[in-house]
Design brief:
113 residues, mainly alpha
């Protein structure tokens, strides 16, 4: 059970990393230079978070079958768009929303197997 909780934290960490990458890209665009402190901070934070998340994922894989836990990674396709909607004002059409619902159903079904 603990490995599934850590796996979900890994998925959340990867989603936050993607948001930090997007924030970094936006800040690079605004600053107009690659040497600005704010975009570099966001970029290095994302890279550090990916590193920690990777180590945690290895811990999960030591305790769980890859085929059982990997479907949880699909939840990143839910978390990232939700965060981008609230943080960056990105919009999605109904077809996209239906696809996200199908991903959630798929993750639930594979977790029950």
């Amino acid at each position: 059970m603990a490995s599934y909780i850590v796996a979900l934290l890994c998925v959340f960490g990867l989603a936050v990393g993607q948001i930090l990458f997007k924030l970094s890209a936006n800040l690079f665009t605004t600053s107009g230079t690659l040497l600005s402190l704010k975009p570099m901070s966001a970029l290095f934070s994302a890279i550090a978070l990916y590193g920690v998340t990777s180590l945690a994922w290895v811990w999960v894989l030591q305790r769980t079958q890859l085929g059982k836990v990997y479907p949880l990674m699909a939840l990143a396709f839910v978390f990232v768009p939700l965060a981008s909607y609230f943080l960056f004002g990105e919009r999605f059409n109904i077809t996209y929303c239906i696809g996200v619902i199908m991903i959630v159903i798929g993750v639930i079904l594979t977790s029950l197997a």
